[in-house]
Design a protein that fits this description.
The structure is a single chain. The protein is α/β, with parallel strands linked by helices and about 230 residues long. Helices cover about 45% and strands about 25% of the residues. The protein contains nine helices and seven strands. Helix 6 packs across helix 9 (about 200-210) and helix 8 packs antiparallel against helix 9 (about 200-210). The relative contact order is 0.14.
Length: about 230
């Protein structure tokens, strides 16, 4: 579903050349290439992730996909020279939001003029409040977050990196609804965390934080005009 929304809003098609930053196991890029017939490259810091990505590529020889080990805070020079039509990312930047401006500047260098940055990401508090002990316990620790930018900071950093924001959707209500459903399902199934605590508590509390504007999610498309 996420990839379909990003394809539609980002206008990714068979002529697109997509760079997936923080590609993980490569499933998102695989979905995009399958759906559109575009050409794609995935970048991830984990060598084990890239090994799995390469298996996806080998099992789908009809798709034009390549993968490389590297950081999206310091994209390899060879990739910057490729000049992609789209830079794409799902829930990767959230792990290093303190370097958000640097990430956007790196993405900007990877795009050709008129290219688009298309991203789904987790958000912090709308008004910039620091996370409480409870938010850290029920959400940040579970998802390995140290700092999350809010929507305002996110937009400011995009503009500082010389992107024009074409579409910016605040999906806080969406994440609240989704986590509430997950919480109810986990409670019914009595799913526990590794330490034996009930997982459903984390999900339900995250839902509450999102409804209060203390956690969130976005989907945006930003354009490189120069």
């Amino acid at each position: 579903m996420k990839s379909k929304q990003m394809i539609k809003l980002g206008e990714i098609n068979e002529n697109s050349y997509v760079l997936d930053l923080g590609c993980g196991y490569g499933k998102a890029l695989l979905d995009v290439c399958k759906a559109t017939g575009c050409k794609g490259v995935g970048l991830d810091l984990s060598e084990s992730n890239i090994e799995q990505c390469n298996k996806y590529a080998q099992n789908n020889p009809d798709l034009d996909m390549k993968f490389a080990v590297g950081s999206f805070t310091d994209v390899p020079r060879k990739l910057k020279e490729e000049k992609f039509t789209h830079v794409f990312s799902q829930y990767a930047f959230c792990h290093v939001h303190k370097e958000l401006l640097k990430i956007f500047q790196e993405a900007h260098q990877c795009l050709r003029p008129g290219g688009k940055l298309v991203c789904f990401d987790y958000m912090g508090a709308k008004n910039g409040e620091k996370p409480t002990i409870h938010i850290i316990k029920h959400c940040y620790d579970r998802l390995h977050f140290t700092y999350l930018a809010g929507h305002k900071e996110f937009k400011e950093k995009l503009q500082q990196a010389k992107f024009e924001i074409k579409t910016y959707l605040e999906l806080d209500e969406h994440i609240a609804f989704a986590y509430n459903l997950l919480g109810e399902a986990a409670k019914t199934s009595k799913v526990l965390k590794e330490n034996g605590d009930p997982l459903w508590e984390d999900y339900i509390e995250t839902s509450k934080y999102a409804r209060k504007g203390l956690m969130g999610q976005n989907l945006f498309v930003a354009i490189k005009n120069a």
